[in-house]
Amino acid sequence: VAAVRRDGDRSFLKYARQFDPLDGPVEVTRAEMRAAAARVPRSVRVAIKAAARHIRSVARRQVPRGWRLRVAPGVTVEQRIVPLDRVGCYVPGGRYPLPSSLLMTAVPATAAGVGEVIVVCPRPEPVVMAAAIESRVTRMFRVGGAHAVAALAYGTRTVPRVDKIVGPGNRYVSAAKALVASDCGIDFYAGPTEIVIVSAHGPAAWIAADLIAQAEHDPDARAVLIPPSRTLAVRVARDVDAQLPEDGPAREALRAHGGIIVTS
C-alpha cells in the first residue's frame, strides 16, 4: 500500500504482474466486455439482468430524500443528498467468478447517482463482464489484491482515485482497506464470510445450498444452521453431503468451521 501510494504506477504495475499475474493490458475495454458477455449462456444473462433489475429497484428505494424547511422568517434549513463522484468496487476473482459481488456493489452505486463506478477484478471472467455491462460500470481493471485497493485509494496514472471503496476480498484486501480507511472511505471492516441460518421448517435442499454457497468463499468461512428439529438437521446434513463439490474450499471450510446446533 505504501509503495503504490509513493510510486504510483511503477509499484502498482509491478505488483499486478507479480501477484495477479497481469500479462496484458490492465484495463478492460468496453468492446472486450461486450464480446465476453456475448459468450455467456443466454439463461445466465437473463438471470443477471433480472438480478440487476431487482437490486436497482431496492437501491433506488433506499436513497434518502433531501428536504427544505423554513423555520422562521429569513431562516431556511435544507438537507441535500449528494452522491459521491467516483466509487471503486472490488470484485474477488481468486477461486470462482463472482458476478454477484459486482452486481451488489456497482448497481447500488449507479442507482444512487454516483458519477463514475470503477471496478477492479484480478480475473474478470465473461460472466463478471456480463454483470459489468448490466451494472453500467464506467471502467474495469484486471487487478486485485492490496495494490488494487491502494491504487483506488490514492490514484495512479492508470487507475483514478475514488471517493469510496466497497466490496469483499481476502485477508490482504481487508487489511489494505483498513490501512487506507483514514484517507479514503470504505464500506466496513470485513472478516471471513459467515452465515447463520435459523430455521424450523425451511426446505432442506435450499438451506444446504445457502450453507455451501458461503463456505465456498474461503477456507476460513463459517456456516452454521440452528434448527429446533433433529429431523431438519439430518435432512440438511444429507443434502449438504449430496451438493458439496469435490474440489474448492467449501469442504475444508465446513469441516473446520461448519456446524448444526439443534436447540431442542
UniProtKB/TrEMBL annotation:
Its cofactor is Zn(2+). One of its GO terms (cellular component) is cytosol. Transmembrane segments: none annotated. SUPFAM superfamilies: ALDH-like. GO terms for biological process: L-histidine biosynthetic process. The keyword Zinc applies. InterPro entries: Ald_DH/histidinol_DH, Histidinol_DH_CS, Hstdl_DH. The keyword Magnesium does not apply. Keywords: Metal-binding, Oxidoreductase, Zinc. GO terms for molecular function: histidinol dehydrogenase activity; metal ion binding; NAD binding. PANTHER family: HISTIDINE BIOSYNTHESIS TRIFUNCTIONAL PROTEIN, HISTIDINOL DEHYDROGENASE HDH. This is Histidinol dehydrogenase.
